[in-house]
Write a structure and sequence with these properties.
Blueprint (H helix, E strand, L loop, with lengths): L1 E2 L3 E8 L7 H12 L4 E15 L4 E5 L2 E5 L4 H10 L10 E11 L5 E14 L4 E5 L3 E7 L3 H4 L4 E16 L7 E11 L4 E5 L3 E6 L14 E13 L3 H7 L7
Antiparallel strand pairs: 1-2, 2-3, 3-6, 3-8, 4-6, 5-6, 7-10, 7-12, 8-10, 9-10, 11-14, 12-14, 13-14
């Protein structure tokens, strides 16, 4: 369990499920044999507040008020693309009061982050929840335009002091925090988060270097500067076993 004295985050696990139809049993049996488990995030508020990704709440137990950011995520993304310098588009649903909030069960894993007056850029669709003291804004990395196309790579940026919970496609024990002191090169998009002070680019690998790049076109991801990157080394293995999604 993590969080402040007035807000606690707890990961609940459904160790077994009882299918109610033959079709469901045929689907669930091989899933259960692999050890895969559905997880649910329980957030306990004590006269406090948190921000939650829109659409992940399943039910609330207690006198908790809900405030939804107006404008819609789609409009916020458009504004962020037009104004990448400020990252316009603070998207959130704020829950305030005393009681318990439960998210919808998911096969995804939960990665806790602790911020102390810093900024961390996270992959799109991984944000789940955070303390109300943390600012959640959209971040547009225009340096990736040349190879990836479009207006830029839209992610999310967490700023401030407090706790955050991300939903990630690999077990937390398989994620490594790599300290960058100059330059880090990843063969493909293996990162789930990085400190905002790093410069991130997508580049074509030099001839003879990483010739078998998993990107299929010899494209690598480079982080330059001083900071940290949360790397998922086992992501290609999970992808080979089936579609990996950061949504439920």
């Amino acid at each position: 369990m993590t969080g402040t004295t007035s807000t606690q985050y707890e990961i609940l696990t459904f160790d077994t499920l009882t299918p109610t139809t033959m079709e469901a049993a045929l689907l669930y049996h091989p899933l259960a044999r692999t050890g895969a488990r559905y997880r649910q995030l329980k957030i306990t508020l004590s006269d406090s507040a948190i921000k939650l990704q829109k659409g992940v709440m399943q039910y609330v137990d207690g006198p908790i008020t809900l405030t939804v950011e107006s404008g819609g995520l789609g409009g916020m993304i458009s504004r962020a693309v037009r104004n990448a310098a400020t990252g316009d588009g603070d998207y959130k649903t704020t829950f305030t009061g005393t009681g318990d909030i439960y998210t919808e069960p998911s096969l995804q894993h939960y990665l806790p982050l602790a911020l102390s007056g810093e900024e961390i850029v996270i992959d799109d669709n991984t944000f789940c929840a955070c303390d109300a003291s943390i600012s959640v804004k959209l971040h547009v990395n225009r340096t990736l335009n040349a190879l990836l196309g479009g207006e830029g790579w839209i992610q999310s940026k967490l700023s401030g002091t407090g706790r955050a919970m991300l939903r990630v496609p690999v077990p937390v024990a398989e994620i490594r925090v790599v300290r960058v002191r100059g330059e880090l090169t990843l063969d493909g998009n293996l990162s789930v988060a990085h400190t905002a002070g790093l410069t991130v680019t997508a580049e074509r690998a030099a001839k003879g270097f990483l010739a078998s790049s998993r990107s299929g076109e010899g494209i690598v991801q480079r982080f330059r500067g001083e900071g940290s990157v949360w790397v998922m080394p086992t992501l290609p293995i999970h992808q080979a076993l089936g579609p990996v999604r950061t949504t439920k």
